[in-house]
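User: Hi! I'm working on a homework problem where we have to compare a predicted structure to a textbook description. Could you give me the structure for the chain below?
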Amino acid sequence: MEKPNYATISEKLAEFTVNFSNDYLPDYAREDVKLRFVDTLGNALLYSKMEQSLKLLEVGEEYFLPGPDKHGTVFGMDYKLSAPTAAFFNSVFAHGLQYDDVHQSTGLHPSCFIVPAALALGETVGASGREVITVASLGYEISTRLALAISSQNNLIGNGLSPTGLLGSITSSLLASKMFGLTKEQTMNALGIGANFNSNLLQSTVDGSFAKIMHPGWSSKAGITAAMLASRGITGPEKIFEGHLGFNQAYFGNPRLNSGFFDDLGINWNSCKISFKPYPCCFYIHPYMEAAFKLVQNHGIKPGDIESVECCVNEIQSKIICEPWEEKINPKNTYASKYSLPFAVALVLSRNRAGIEEFDSAFTCTDHEIKYLMSKIYSIIKNNEEDLHRVTVKTRDGSTFTARESGYKGSLLNPMQKEDIIEKFKSNIHTIFINNKSVYGLLNRILNLEEVKLITDFTREWLAQQTRLQA
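Assistant: Happy to help. Predicted C-alpha cells:
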C-alpha cells in the first residue's frame, strides 16, 4: 500500500489523532498505560496533601470559581473546576515529587500531563474508562515521537529547555481534540494554537524554585484550551513545525524537523519505552545512586571511612545535576536537592535509603553527615560510554572501590516490574487512605479501568476528598 503524502507534520498527527481507536492498541500497550495511571495517581494524590500544593490550591479556590457546573475533579478536593484548570492542578501534583515516569532518551515526563488531561477531558464529555485509556495511549505515542524528532537534532536540556513544557501543550491539544471529536482541520488548528502555549525553562533545577513543577500544569491546561478554541473556529498556523517562523525555527534555528520518527505511528508502541522511577529525584542521578548503593552493600563502606567520591558524568548531565557546583552542594530546599548529584549520592552513602522520607528529612534536618559527605564528592566530565555512570570511592586507609551502573533500576535494561510499581503506589497512598482495604480498592479500580462505564464515577468515588476521608 502506498504511504499517504502529508503536506505537513501537523496534518499527519491530526489524521492519526482523528482515526485513532482502542482497536489499534495491542494488549501489552493497554496494560502498560494502566500501570502509568497507577503510578501517576499514587504520586499526585500524595503530593496533593503537601504544603506547596495547599498553597497552590488557595489560588484555585480564590480565582478559578469552583462550582457545581464544573466537570473537573481536583485530586483531594471537595469541589470541581473547569477541565483545563483541574488538569493544571492535577498535573502539577503528578510532577511535584519528581517521582513521575520519564522517557530517558529525551528527558520528557509524559504521564504528569497526559493522565490528568485524559481524566479531566473524560469527565467533561462523559467518557468511559476505556475511552480515557485510548486517549492517554494516543498521548504517549505522539509525545515521545515529537521528543525524539526534536532531540535528534537539538540539545534541548543542555540549552535550558524542558521537553515536558515544550511538548506537553502540543500533545494535550491532540488529546483534547480526540476527546471532543474534532475534525482533522480543527485538530490541526488546535495543534497550531497549542504550540503557541509553551512553558519550558529549566532554571528552577538550579535554585529549587516552584516554577518547573508547573510546566505540565500549563501544558495540559493550554492543550485543552487550544482544542476548545479550535472547536469554536479559532485557527492556528498550519506549518507550525516547518514554517520559517515556526516552532523549530524559533527554538532551534532550523525549520526542518526529522519526520522519520512518525513513520511507525500505530505500528510500534513507545509507551513501553518510558521508564518508571524508583527514586524521587532527577533520573540523571539514578545510576550514581545505584552505584553508591552497590559500594556500600558490597564493601561495607561507612561515611567516616570516605576520603573522596568521584562521579563520572557527561556534559548534558553536568548542566542539570552538577552546575553550578556551589549551588549543588548547598541546595536551598528539598526540590533543589532532587537535582543535586552530590546530595543524592551523599544521602545513599549516609542512609543507605533514598525515598521520599529520606529526601525530606535529610534536608529539613540539615543533616551534618550529609553535608560532610557532599564536601568529599566531586564530578568529572567523561563523554565516553565506558566511564559514564562510574563512581569511585577512596577511603582513608588508601583503598579504592569502583562501581558502574548501566543497567540501573528503572532503566530500559532493568525496568521496574508491575509488582515494583504497585509497591511504590501503596507506599505513596498509605498516608492518604486510613485502611488497606481502601488502598487495594483504588488499585484494583485503576487496573480494571477499562471496565468503568463512566469515568466520573471513578473520580467521584476515589479521587475526591470527601469520599477518601470516609474510606
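For your comparison, note the following. The first helix runs from residue 9 to 19. The chain has 22 helices and six strands. Good luck with the assignment!
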